[in-house]
Amino acid sequence: MRRSRSAVVIYLLVTFCKEFICQAENVFPPTSFSEVPNGDMYQAEGSNKVLTCKTSSLPTPEYGWLKNDQYITNFSTTGYQFRFTNTKRNDTGYYRCEARNTLGALLSAPAVVTVAYMDDFENSSHIFNMSISSGQAIVLPMPPVKSVPFPKSISWTRNQIPLSVYDTRYQISIDGALVLLDQTTTDSNKIYHVTATNTHSDGLEMLGPQYRVTVTESGLTAVPASIVVGPKNVTVVQDVGDSIKLECICNARPLSSLIVRWFRMVNGVKTEVIDSIDFLLPVSEKNRTLTIKNYKPSHSGLYICEAMLLGDATPVTANATLEVHGEYLCGVLRKLGIMHVRKVSSQISLCSLHRLIRDDT
């Protein structure tokens, strides 16, 4: 009888220990995500979006969400998704998912959500009157418009007819302004109109104010070369496969005799920039834009634009500094969830602290 009881006790102890060991071996904290929230893209205002994060653990994990390092949901086992319905501008920010159980917690990398939108142009119904003398140039500024991101497509019309891309007396600058060159009295009293399109906001299109330009006769048959819009200093983070532009829009009369050349300082030596695997100079634009392809730190330095009429001895010049930072730093910080690389204009990308995200370009 005693042996029987002892056997039962031993059996129960062995069973209990096996169960305990089994349970101890199968419980574990969340250690990695099988699905992480997808951000780093523009989301049209008024649209819907779902962020999802999933992990495995035992006990079953609870999920909670943070926006800009502040908790915005309660923890629950079914909270692995965060839904945006009819996105609003103040939804812009960086989002993280936290998964936890009694044994530990796991925080996802940030998912940057930027709500794209565009408002009407300021003074969209206004007509601005401007005047110049023949042979001169004038800049019709891109009117202020609140848009995230900056409109990708900007076009201009003259008397409701699109400007010809083959007419060298017009140039749309990088920031969307229209530059009129070597104007004549036949150009007088024409109406110019700008249209901007935000392709990230479901192709939203806005019509801007009008400009009426009056041209008076100057009697000049020759106008010396001048730089109307010169290159600007640029700081960027290397972005593989991307390009950046510098511009130098010049005026002269006759415009057909204008020569524009680009140079860069290489190891203290002034070297002319020509069409190559790294640089693009469109002849159709009379070298007004210099495109630096697949830019990298070795492209950093001083760039010089020179303009003069054929036969002149001394050119007019303008210069700008390009500063390209290596992507490795941002790559490391991005993996740590500290920084991210994002576009802040049509051609500038910066490695920015998440908590300093702004969209006022």
UniProtKB/TrEMBL annotation:
> Which GO molecular function annotations are given, in alphabetical order?
cell-cell adhesion mediator activity
Q: Does the keyword Disulfide bond apply?
A: yes
Signal sequence interval, chain numbering: 1-24
Q: Keywords, A to Z?
A: Disulfide bond, Repeat, Signal
| Domain Ig-like span(s) in chain numbering | 29-114, 231-323
Q: What is this protein called?
A: Ig-like domain-containing protein
Cellular component annotations (GO), alphabetically ordered: axon; plasma membrane
The UniProt entry, under InterPro entries, shows: Ig-like_dom, Ig-like_dom_sf, Ig-like_fold, Ig_sub, Ig_sub2
Would I find Signal among this entry's keywords?
yes
Pfam families reported in the protein's UniProt record: Ig_3
Organism in which the protein naturally occurs? Dreissena polymorpha
Q: Which BP terms in the Gene Ontology apply to this protein?
A: axon guidance; brain development
Q: Which PROSITE patterns match?
A: IG_LIKE (PS50835)
